[in-house]
Amino acid sequence: MFIDTAKIFVKSGKGGDGAISFRREKYVALGGPDGGDGGKGGNVILVADSQLTTLLDFTYRRKYVAEPGENGGKSKCYGKDGEDLYIKVPTGTVIKDFETNKVMVDLSHEGDKFVIAKGGKGGKGNAKYATPTRQAPSFAEPGMPGEERFIILELKLLADVGLIGFPNVGKSTLLSTVSKARPKIANYHFTTLKPNLGVVSVPEAPAFVMADIPGIIEGAAEGVGLGLEFLRHIERTRLLIHVVDISGVEGRDPIEDFVKINDELKKYSVKLWDRPQIVAANKSDMLYDDEAFENFKNKLEEMGYKNIFKISAATQEGVADLMKECARMLSTIPVSELEIPEEEMYIPEEKKFTYTIRKDEDGVYVVEGTFVDRLLSAVNVNDPDSLKYFHKVLKNKGIFEELKEMGIEDGEIVRLNDFEFEYLF
Question: N- to C-terminal Cα distance for the chain?
């Protein structure tokens, strides 16, 4: 089964908490703080692997969580860092943020790596909070939480040449003729429901990869049928072979078919429509009138298309010359990266611990937010030294100043989650 899109959940490891510990040794009555720092949480890292050709594995496993960092220990022992989690994806996979649908990275080369979720930083142990005036701090810093998000994996095949055209015009037969690929072939529409890749060898020229893209139909650029899924795989190709059924045995007009396919390409992407094309007039062995090809060729030349080949994928007539021309043209077309518009790129937001202050109906000033959660988890409000540190952080953060601007008076209550205290300035 060929799967070219997948949605998964990734979460990096939480940082380990700093330890609260005091030196306890024989003959040392008042040992100082010796709590160690917590370890860093593991990252989630995506790696491009050319051995993979489908995203099928991600239909069975959709949740990936990295290892958390270990908590700090006594005697200033640091916690162990969490192991990074590596996720292999096929080369040519584009990663998108699920919420914004913006592109985060394009893993287009073998071995490309991207940290999709950074592990949380380890918290400081109480040894780091010791000062000349606070010699026995009974609090430590908790580890930072890991990052988590849903992402979309979108596979865009890495092929030099893309075979395009209506269903049942002979693209799969042509690919099987020129490479060792063995796509399913039958005489009915939409035989090809997934892209097929084949390596083509041409004498005295570098081999190249050819992709048989499933047939495009009218309305594909608007998502009719499987249009957008099919068109996605042509984006990376440097050269297109437009296969047309010149025989007309199914009652189709080859000129009309050619124009319709190019219209769909133009609607989807002007750059894709402007890509070099070689026209392969296939099924020439079934022609009853040789003038049909000449008429077809003349009309396409009037449209500006010069590379037009009369071929039969079934009998291999003209196929060798077609492949030689492909190799020649590829030698003149540089390999370029997939262009992603700036407005489609994901810009990560700076991670901040925030808070808000409001006055509830009982007249209590309520401070809430991620900053509050983190501060309360770091201190022991029942310990005098820890409480001093708590008030110092609130002052440095500007919370007391903001409360004054809101009109708070001495004796009024301030609440942070479940902890309340009287405001005295």
Answer: 69
Q: Which of 285, 308, 337 marks a domain boundary? A: 337
Find all residues with CB under 8 Å of 158, minimum gap 6, and list them: 91, 92, 108, 209, 236
| Rounded CA separation 228/217 (Å) | 11
pLDDT digits (tens, 9 = 90+) for 30-77: 678 899 999 999 999 999 998 887 788 898 899 999 999 999 998 889
- CATH at residue 313: 3.40.50.300
For residues 306 and 279, give the distance between their C-alpha atoms in angstroms, rounded to a whole number: 9
- Paired tokens of 382: 């029942």
- The pair of three-digit structure tokens given for residue 332, joined into one six-digit string: 């003149």
Do 179 and 312 share a domain, yes or no?
yes
* Global pTM value: 0.70
Q: Which residues touch 300 (CB under 8 Å, ≥6 apart)?
A: 255, 258, 279, 308
CA–CA dist 322, 279 (Å, integer)? 9
24 and 145 share a domain?
Answer: yes
Phi, psi of 417 (to 5 degrees): 55, -115
Within 8 A by CB and 6+ apart from 201, the residues are: 207
Assess whether 74 and 111 both reside in one domain: yes
Are 284 and 328 in contact by the 8 Å Cβ rule? The answer is no
Report yes or no: 214 and 193 within 8 Å, Cβ to Cβ.
yes
Range of the domain at 391: 356-422
CATH at 87: 2.70.210.12
**Number of structural domains the chain divides into:** 3
Would 346 be classed as within a structural domain? no
